[in-house]
Structure formats: structure tokens, C-alpha cells
Amino acid sequence: MTIYIDVVFIENLLMNYIILFATTVVLKLKTKHMRCLLASLIGAIYTILAYISRLQIYSNFFLKLLLSFIMIYIALNPKNIKQLFKYTLIFYLTSFVFGGAAFALIYIVKPQELLRNNGLILNSNSLKIIFISAIVAFMIITIAFKIVKNKISAKDMYCNILVKLNDKEIEAKAMIDTGNFLKEPITNTPVIVVEHTLLYDCIPKEILNHLENILGGDFSEIPDKIRDEYVSRLKVIPFSSLGKQNGMLLGIKAEKVTIKNEDEEKDINNVIIGIYNKSLTKRGEYRALLGVYR
């Protein structure tokens, strides 16, 4: 069987990119195509060096693991070591799914055309195999993670948020509501609902204590200085729920919201705080409500 180096390079570049892209989909990260392409290029160059070299070091497990860390660091830009290991694990799991699909197709099509060189498996129909296995692997990954998502544990339903508003910060426990698509209707900015009692250090009490009056257009209880400063910043957000149809929330844009999970933090700059004038739960399990942010 004749093997062309340029074809091997393109095939590996393509496969590396597809696997990295699938990893970002699984992790729900924003795909940075140029970073993924650069990481894929490094992986493809390594493959060529391993193919043309007779040095067994290129098939060494630890060297391949180091290559994986480098590719993940470049493509996904993890913020810490723990996140790097997590992303690499998902990368390997995704690779195993793609590899399994590819091997299955190779053995079904033409197993006699397999060629092994320095730990690399080559096949004359590998370009076709890449595209078909990519489709099959994406289907498997999508179905598998939908099953996992339906069995989400209680701890994954909550997170801590840090809200920066008027140069002050408050922290609260929030519930992640996958059905929460609340947005400010004019700018389409996402809304995080927060109990008003948490905001006394950030917003004047004259506003927080008269939310219903303000929504009704009555500012008589609001001092002129506060009214002049805040009226232009306040947003009226319509909402509906099982308990109340056609309700209204008063909102204000935050400078920044940081969502804190066990192993990562995510900053959101474009978000509005919806001020809820009651308690979200009777027992106070959480005091804020947000949707899913990728």
C-alpha cells in the first residue's frame, strides 16, 4: 500500500480538529477555531515525525500524554491545572469514541489494508473513514450526554454567583434553571433573578422598598436625587410563570456577574439583575435564579 505524507498530514489535521471541536461541544465551551486549528496542526506535525522517524520515543506514552496537554492548553485555554486535567479527560473520552467508530468502519470495509508504523494505524480509505466516523461519533456523543444530562445530580443544579453592582459585590447561592430563558425584551440581554433583600448594599433602600410603586409609575416615595440617578438605569422586564401570568420585574444592569462552580469560574459582563420582591424559596435553599450560560 502506498502512503502519501501530505495525505497523512491532512487526515490527522482534520481528525484532530474534529475531535477538539467535539470536545468543546461536550464541555459547552465557545469554540475558538484558530486555537483549535493551531493545536490540530501541532498534533498533525507530531504524527508525521512519528511516521517518518525510526525513534521509538515518538510512540512513548508519556510523550503522547504531554502532547495532549499541550493541544488542550492551546485549544481550550484552561484556567488552572484541575481544569486542564478535566478537559484532557473529556478529550480522551471523545477520542476513544471517534477511534472506536473509525476502527469499526475500517474492519467492516477493508481490514486487509491496515498498516502499522511506529504506533500509527494507516489505511488507504482513511479520509472517507474520518467523515463517516465523525458522523457516527457525534451521534453517539450527543445521545450519551443527553442521557447523562437527564440524570443530573442535585449539586449540579446549584452554584454561587458574585454580583458586582455600583462598585460593590454581593454573593449568593443560585439555582441553575435550564428552563429559564428570561431576557430584557428591548436589548435581549439575559436576566438573573435575585431576591431584593440581597441588594440593600448595592441599591438604595428607597427603591428596593417600593418596587411595586415604581412598576406602577409612582415615584412619590423616591427622593429626587435617587430618582434622577436611577430611573434611566432601571429596566421593566415582563415574565410569566406557573404562579403568575404577565408579571413584571424591575431590573438593573450589573457591571459583572461571576458564576462559580466547583472547578471553574465564568465571568458574564452583559447581564441584568431582575429584582424579586419576595423569597424564591420558603427554606432559603437558594436566593437567585439563572439560566444556563455557556
Question: What would you say this structure looks like, in words?
Answer:
This protein starts with a helix and ends with a strand. It has a nine-stranded mixed β-sheet. A two-stranded antiparallel ribbon has the order 1-2. It has 294 residues and is an alpha+beta fold. Helices cover 44% and strands 20% of the residues. The longest helix is centred in the first third of the chain and has 29 residues, at 81-109. The protein has two domains: 5-150; 154-290, Cathepsin D, subunit A, domain 1 (Beta Barrel).
Overall radius of gyration: 26 Å
Q: Can you tell me the number of structural domains?
A: 2
Gap from first CA to last CA:
46 Å
Structural class: alpha+beta
Tell me roughly what share of residues is in helical segments.
Answer: 40-55%
Strand order of the largest sheet: 6-7-10-5-11-4-3-8-9
In total, the number of strands is 11
- Major beta-sheet overview: 9 strands, mixed
Instruction: Tell me, rounded to a whole number, the average pLDDT.
Output: 81
Low-confidence stretches: 111-121
Q: What global shape is seen? A: elongated
Portion in strands? 15-25%
In DSSP terms, counting alpha (H) and pi (I) runs of 4 or more, how many helices?
8
Q: Report the order of strands and helices.
A: HHHHEEHEEEHHHEEEEEE
Features:
single chain; 294 residues; alpha+beta; Cathepsin D, subunit A, domain 1; 2 domains; 9-stranded mixed β-sheet; two-stranded antiparallel sheet; 11 strands
